[in-house]
Amino acid sequence: MQIITEVLQTENKITYTQQGDYLLPDLVLPEQPNVNIGIWGRRHERYIKQHHKLLYFNLLTSCKLTAYLADIDEEATEMYDRLVEQISKQEGVTEQLKSDNQILWIKRMNIIRNRATEIVNKELIYS
Length: 127
Prior knowledge:
With 127 residues, this protein is mainly alpha-helical. It has helices at 2-12, 39-51, 53-61, 65-90, 95-100, 102-125; strands at residues 16-19, 22-25. The chain folds into 2 domains: 1-30, no CATH class; 31-125, no CATH class. Helices cover 70% and strands 6% of the residues.
């Protein structure tokens, strides 16, 4: 058994660790960039992990998952901010309204944010 282990180590350049009766390969993933993934990226990760397992594991094993989720997160954040700005302009929710009637401004902005969240979820996160 020891001879086979040494031959395998030199041919494939893989080292093994003995765990009880088994030899397990010492596998290490390559270094990945340290990127903070926000809420949109995490939501999309949960979605593809549950509903698109093949895509998830292909991205994970090719070490592209982090970059993919960071791109989705950035795109979703930009889309959300743009939608909130456009809808608030369209509906006349301004800083003047905020100073005149804060409660009304908060209510309307919450509705706008919820609508923008639904659109982003539908268009990017859960598709």
